[in-house]
Amino acid sequence: EEVPEETPAEPEAPAAGGEPGQADFLAGRQFWAERHPEKALEALLRAGEQGHREAQYLCGRIYQQWVQDEGRERVALTWYRRAAKQGHLDAQLSCASMYEQGRGAQMNLKRALSWYEQAARQGSVEAQLKCGCMYSQGRAETRNPKKARHWLETAAAGGSEEAQRILREAKETADQTIRQINKLAQSSGVGKELEAERARLRE
User: Fold this and answer.
1) How far apart are CA 43 and CA 8, in angstroms?
2) How much is the pLDDT for 69?
3) What's the pTM value of the predicted model, to 2 decimals?
């Protein structure tokens, strides 16, 4: 049987004798390195059933990327969820992406956003940007400018050029609107209503 040329990136091995399923996890990695994918998956599945979150994540990746069975993405999502619930960052991102795209399950933007937020709280700049955009655009739920700004600013501080661009363009649009309001106020003498609008735009 042909062995796939590509392999999942190898994670750092946890300390020996620690996490349940560690022996099967290490065996699975060794089998994969020796180009025995079926034996590797069997060992990783055993480790995953014992609660080893890195093994669970790798099971998801192998099912999604290398297993050819129909329904492989549904199985992959099941393994990603198990790892994600234990706080595995990449698994959380994988769950979010699959729910967002409707892969392995029906599209569910609320679940996608929920997983993105969990990953964002762990420091994923990618997830922070996604949260900012989804709240800004009103995807998954009603638009929430406050949350959108929070996540975009967090992503921008983390080095996201896309988040920095979005915030810069939003500021330029708001500044231009304020200038137009000021000009209108000066010419028409309209007071309180326009001042309230200026305050809202400055938020």
Assistant:
1) 15
2) 87
3) 0.79
